[in-house]
Design a protein that fits this description.
The complex is a heterodimer of chains A (about 425) and B (about 160). In chain A, about 40% of the residues lie in helices and about 15% in strands. With about 425 residues, chain A is of the alpha/beta class. Chain A has two domains: about 140 residues, Aspartate Aminotransferase, domain 1, CATH 3.90.1150.10; about 250 residues, Type I PLP-dependent aspartate aminotransferase-like (Major domain) (Aspartate Aminotransferase, domain 2, 3-Layer(aba) Sandwich). Chain B contains five helices and three strands; from the N terminus they run H-H-E-E-E-H-H-H. A three-stranded antiparallel β-sheet of chain B has the order 1-2-3, with helices on one face. In chain B, strand 1 and strand 2 form a beta hairpin. Classes of the chains: A alpha/beta (about 425), B alpha+beta (about 160). At the A-B interface, helix 12 and helix 13 of A face helix 1, helix 2 and helix 3 of B.
Chain lengths: ~425, ~160
Amino acid sequence: MTGLNHAPSETQRLPFDLARIRRDFPILKREVAPGVPLIYLDNAATSQKPVQVIAELTRYYRDHNANIHRGVHTLSVESTELYEAARAKVARFINAPRTEEVIFTRNTTESINLVAHAWARKFLAAGDEVVISEIEHHSNIVPWQMLRDERGIVLRYIPMLPDGTLDLEVARKIIGPRTKLLAITAMSNALGSIVPLEVLVPLAKAHGATVLVDGAQSVPHMPVDVQALDIDFLAFSSHKMLGPTGIGILWGKMALLEAMDPFMGGGDMILTVSMDRSTWADVPAKFEAGTPNVADAIAFGAAIDYLDALGMDAVRAHEREVTDYALRRLSDVPGVSIFGPMDADLRGGVISFELEDVHPHDIGQVLDTYGIAIRTGHHCAQPVMSALNVPATARASFYIYNTTEEVEQLASALQAVSKFFGGGR
Amino acid sequence: MSDAGLMEDLYREIILDHYRQPRNRHAVDSPTCSADGSNPLCGDQVTVSVVVDGDRITDIGFAGNGCSISQASSSMMTQYVRGRTVAEARAGVGAFQQMMTTGEVAGLEGFDDIDALVGVAKFPARVKCASLAWKTLEQALNEGGAATPVTTDERSA
């Protein structure tokens, strides 16, 4: 038996030791060019991976690799156990009542599309209203527009206020008896605004609506408890929370998942197949047609172990501190304007900004020569860009390994960028 | 700064000069054809308006906003095209695209400033910024003819 017990059975909380955390991420030691160490500030796009996750991925392929849920041989049994153990870790992490409610997908986008196809197409009719917001990522806009065009549902949105928060007054008017689904992000990927789910979810629930939360930016960065939130579906991705790409999660309440038809047909999702008809397997297998991404799911389990050991309260506290520092420090750089709420309690570790007379693309290009990786563009949130009346922004986003020293270097590099392009247009 | 050399390849002084003081960044009177170009991913946007008289481009102007590379390339493109024949302008589009592909200066007559953009070829993510104005010009000329202005994309953002 080769080490099926390498995952810690009891999570031990470790002190939030930044130096130790940084040592776990080999990529943070690399240089972007000779003498220029990497400063990675693009965590809202994807996070870096600790050695523990990389090792787990390698260990799986080295010691256990086999297809799952079939075959009686040792490797297949081990692979199945590891895959299902990862599912259990995810369930615990978000406080899901039942492990089987956790479905492995490819990413948040697929998770939302799964709900749009397998739940909304079955249970929504023409005239039913789906409420989203103006600060959604495209992945929580486009599936509903497609459904609107196909089924005649009505799509409404909660507008954004100039400070990047949602207009709750309008939300109270929009969410009503016709609302069948509230599909809302917990945190804007473009601005970092934290959405007050504690206000919006009860509004939707009061009218009997189902609630889907896009947790792509919240689950990696703060404690998320699906029962405390009283939501019905939660979608998020592994790769933004230390895990591999190619693994996403859809959590849903069992009663809803059981009532839904499959998303895709094929192997692993059936109970029986004859040439005339097939019957479906139970949840979650019903939604996991074909050989799943076994290795990455298992490595995602190691990522969750890592975050569990830190504690999500500590993760949030650290990011809040770095964000608060960055909000103040970047505000001091001449020409910098920050979008979104200026209170670190109201935003996650995401700061979108512009620099006077310098296009975001040029900012990103010059920062790269300082080893600083940021995102530039519309961040898959074009409605937010339109509301701000800008074509694009520059965005720095933080995670557990970022430091205030890195923010300091960003600030001084931005001053150099300003000087480089100085002279205006 | 690490890659000082590489950065100087990308942001040559003549490019920054065109960015800070763009040529032909104005509306033209009674354009015979025009086209919009947009790279929504990075937020580059340009509108090219052309006056064609016979086979000659007698006036050209551009509007828009975007990164230094896209705006400088627009400025240089209009400087090159103004006063040339449509065939010469098309040859310029071809030469520019060639330069972005090969990373070698085009060496075309009248391309002196434009050849400074050759360094962009080393930055794959920026080639589309430099090419936008040229593709938009090509579109304008293709759609051209006095009566058929191209539908403008109002993605002003």
